Automatic annotation (TrEMBL):
Gene field: ybfJ
Lineage: Bacteria, Bacillati, Bacillota, Bacilli, Bacillales
Keyword field contains Translocase: no
Pfam families in the record: DUF2606 (PF10794)
First and last residue of the signal peptide: 1-36
Keyword list, A-Z: Lipoprotein, Signal
Name the record gives this protein: Lipoprotein YbfJ
Domain of life the protein comes from: Bacteria
Length: 135
């Protein structure tokens, strides 16, 4: 069975107003989304990662890669690691994109890699997180 729909001028006008109303709602929704994105930027927890060797000496030139831990043990991790860069002469590197949660931090130097598990919480904001590179 096929239905045919015939619009008269009044119905087109009515639906035109509805389309304008929906467009306005959509635009308002987009602007509130942009606002929530800026709010999410405020929830980052900037920290400094400090890398030392077994003897407690700062390690320069260690590549630091961050991977967010999966939500559960059963869920595979599909995130690609974020390479922060190399530690400076003091063994430090700034991580200012982290948000609350659990992360794996891979430290790599001379084809040797060490992994640490770190939980970011608000109380760690602007603090130094020490990591030991044991070869």
């Amino acid at each position: 069975m096929m239905y045919s729909i015939i619009f008269n001028i009044g119905q087109i006008n009515k639906y035109g107003k509805l389309a304008v109303f929906i467009s306005i709602l959509f635009l308002c929704g987009c602007s509130s989304q942009a606002h929530s994105d800026s709010a999410s930027k405020e929830t980052t927890i900037p920290v400094t990662l400090h890398v030392e060797d077994d003897a407690g000496l700062p390690m320069e030139g260690v590549q630091v890669t961050i991977v967010k831990a999966p939500a559960s043990d059963q869920e595979p991790n599909t995130e690609i690691g974020e390479i922060l860069g190399l530690t400076d002469k003091n063994g430090d590197i700034t991580w200012d994109t982290g948000k609350k949660g659990d992360y794996s931090i891979a430290l790599t130097k001379n084809e040797t890699s060490v992994t640490h598990q770190v939980s970011l919480t608000k109380d760690k904001k602007d603090k130094v997180i020490p990591l030991v590179f044991k070869e």
